[in-house]
Amino acid sequence: MEKFIEIKDVSFSYINDYDDPPTKNTVLKGVTLDINKGEFVAVLGHNGSGKSTLAKLLNSINLPESGDVFVDGMNTRDEDKLYDIRRTVGMVFQNPDNQIVATVVEEDVAFALENIGVEPSEIRKRVDWALKKVGMYEYREHAPHKLSGGQKQRIAIAGVLAMQPKCIVMDEPTAMLDPIGRREIMQTITELNSEGVTVVLITHYMEEAARAGRVVVMDDGKILLDGAPKKVFSQAELLKSVGLDVPDVTDLTHGLIRAGIDLPDDIISEDECVERLYQLLKKE
Amino acid sequence: MGIIRTEDLTYVYGEGTPFRKTAVDGVNLDIEAGEIVGIIGHTGSGKSTLIQHFNGLLKPTSGKVFIDGEELFADKSRLKEIRFKVGLVFQYPEYQLFEETVYKDIAFGPKNMGLTDGEADKRIKETARLVGLKPELLDKSPFELSGGQKRRVAIAGVMAMEPKVLILDEPTAGLDPRGRDRILGLIKEYHAEKGTTVLLVSHSMEDVAKTVSKILVMNDAKVFMYSDRSSVFAKADELTAMGLTVPQVTRVFDRLRAMGIEFDDEVFSIDYAKDLVLRLLAEKRR
Fold first, then answer.
1. Is the pLDDT of residue A149 over 80?
2. Residue A12 maps to which CATH number?
């Protein structure tokens, strides 16, 4: 498989100016991670584990203190490539209010396209496409500030989609959405991924991570676990010890295993759990 | 009469504009004092608009709101007094921190109520303990703290006013699982210790299931249901149709029942689910 993002032995620190003398808080400690083209990677970690910092390294918002990050072959330190890098990797942040700039929904989605000089007819096409993708097309003439948090987040995602980036990095995009909103965003993500877009999803929802192709767990600025969701979530004790969790169905089956019931320890989806419990409980 | 009561409460946004929207439509509610209530509803269902009426941030377009027996807006001179009875913690409350120290930030509300320094000091320290903020943190700048700590400071600021009703809008949004459990734990503890009314607005059915005793379901600006957990989660199909979900374990057991496994229980916690499976297995072996 083709490497798309290469993170090579990257460290990163924030300087804390509140302290006198200023202190250094190292949040990434020699992280090495490759992400292949077309992968769907979920990144888990407790608050402060370094996952958002890692995300910001992927389109040059943060530059490594040491080590290098390559995106589609471009070093994120290369200032001449800055615009190319940002066009390649789109970012969606947690709080939609910080990402909306215009007073009309469709203008907001068109903002970046206008900036990079896309043809007006093409802008129209892409804006409509992106708004339909996130299910907000009927709101195209509304004022973003009158929408709910979840709706605003979908506008922010549409703005990134309209740029047609090769990779989308999302930092807890569903934190403010209701269950339907979350489901829609997850559907959008899966759909985009199946069309070849590389997706990096930072999330606190274990059920969302379980749907990724690969799960990376961060702890204390390092990568603690990296593998298929089934492999990662079977390590329930380790995950809980670093402030994380496993999907509820995993928690349930692990509890049953501890009570002596014979079940596999890598059940992470609702369907699988229902099937296994049915086999267990059905009448002979 | 309950601590919060509404009579035909209606609120319309953008009257006279093309964006006119009835956000709350003829709501009649009676919430008993001491209850811990989860408020759920899809985006735009009216939950946030509803709770903003409970401390007079919004004035009803029509209908009435009573807090502790007193009608809001009936006597303007009483408004401030009534507002102190209802503490509202907004979404992402840590963005509202502004003081130089954690101590001063928590002190802001109690001082505004006119408490003496001594009384305020007592409440600040007690609330800080309740939300799990170590004494040495009180002299730090709130901006030096972690996200979860900041949120606890913001919640403490409202708790320290000792309102008769504490309303929290999505208090766990954006927190990691440990942070979520911690916030929910302290809300439960606060409720147990103070015995006051707590309203918890949440999109997370799992959070609601493990924290509250009653659930208020809003749908399209109206109250769909106000009842205990089991009765609400028993309506899984209707909740799903209105864009909500039930906890994952509830779905699993609803499906098992549909497949022919027989049991009467409504399942909404993992521990309960585990015990139920063990019980069913034991019955099967017999």
1. no
2. 3.40.50.300
CA distances from residue B8 to B14, B50, B64, B86 in whole angstroms, order as listed: 20, 12, 7, 20
Query: Which sign does the torsion angle of CA B91, B92, B95, B98 carry?
Result: positive
Q: Which two tokens stand for residue A283?
A: 């009448």
Query: In this structure, is residue A173 part of a structural domain?
Result: yes
Residue A220 lies in a domain: yes
Gap from B211 CA to chain A (nearest CA, Å): 16
The pLDDT value recorded for residue A6 is 96
Burial class (CB in 10 A: 0-12, 13-18, 19+), A253: buried
pLDDT in tens, B24-76: 999 999 999 999 999 999 878 899 999 999 999 999 999 999 999 999 999 98
Between the two ends of chain B, the Cα-to-Cα distance in Å is: 51
Q: Which of B49, B101, B252 to mutate against chain A (most A CBs within 10 Å)?
A: B252
Residue B163 has pLDDT above 80, yes or no: yes
Q: Are B53 and B6 in contact (CB under 8 A)?
A: yes
Q: For testing the chain B interface, which of A224, A277, A284 should be mutated: the one with the most B CBs within 10 Å?
A: A277
- Determine, for residues B43 and A148 on separate chains, whether the beta-carbon distance falls below 8 Å: yes
pLDDT tens for each residue of B134-145: 999 999 999 888
Helix count (H) and strand count (E) of chain B?
Answer: 11, 10
Cross-chain CB nearest to A281 (options B92, B251, B256): B256
- For residue B146, list chain A residues with Cβ-Cβ distance below 8 A: 47-48
| pLDDT value for A178 | 78
Q: Flag whether pLDDT at A131 surpasses 80.
A: yes
Q: Nearest chain A Cα to B248, which residue?
A: A248
> B164-190 pLDDT, tens per residue?
999 999 999 888 888 889 999 999 999
- Cβ-Cβ contacts under 8 Å, B19 against chain A: 142-143, 146
**Chain-chain contact of B143 with A181 (C-beta, under 8 angstroms):** no
Domains in chain B: ranges and CATH? 4-234 (3.40.50.300), 247-286 (no CATH)
Residue A101 lies in a domain: yes
- Inter-chain residue contact A176 with B248, CB threshold 8 Å: no
Rounded to the nearest angstrom, the minimum Cα separation between A250 and chain B is 10
Q: Are A217 and A224 contacting, i.e. CB atoms less than 8 angstroms apart?
A: yes
At B5, the pLDDT band (50, 70, 90 cuts) reads very high
Contacts of B141 in chain A (CB under 8 A): 18
In a domain, A281, yes or no: no
Domain that holds residue A228: 3-246
Whether the bond into A21 is cis, omega within 30 of 0 = yes
Mean predicted confidence (pLDDT) in A208-222: 94
Tens digits of residue pLDDT in B111-124: 999 999 999 999 99
ipTM: 0.79
